[in-house]
Each structure stands twice: as structure tokens, then as C-alpha cells.
Amino acid sequence: MAKKDYFGQPWLISLILAIIPVTSWLLGAVTRFQEGKPIAGIIRLLLLGWNVLWIIDILCVLFTGKIIRILNC
Fold this sequence. Notes:
The protein has 73 residues and is mainly alpha-helical. 62% of the residues lie in helices and 0% in strands. Helix 1 packs antiparallel against helix 4 and helix 2 packs antiparallel against helix 3 (38-46). The mean pLDDT is 81.
């Protein structure tokens, strides 16, 4: 599978990082900042990542290879 997220890491590495709550929260926000979406990065930091967004991230990485992007700004 060539799907990638979290700094271009392979799909399996991204899935493992998404399963760990702290890395999912932190790397999700850093990824959004790197994409040039500071508002989305701040919102990901404020949501703390261990809620519904964390579970959705795991499912999205599992099925699409990318974290969820709710806000595109």
C-alpha cells in the first residue's frame, strides 16, 4: 500500500502512530501546520486527540491511509 501521512511515513507506520493517543494528537496537529493550515492545527491541539477525533483518525488511516481533515483552513 502506498498511502502515506504523518510526514510521508508508510501506511503501517502511520497506523501505529495514529493508534497511540499522544502521537496521534501531536502529529495530527503538526501535519496540519505543515500543510499550511494553522487554524486546523490549533483546533486539533485544542480537541486533545483522545476523543472521537482520535477514533476517526485511526479508522481513516486504516481505510484511506490519511488522517481526517475536518477543517480545510
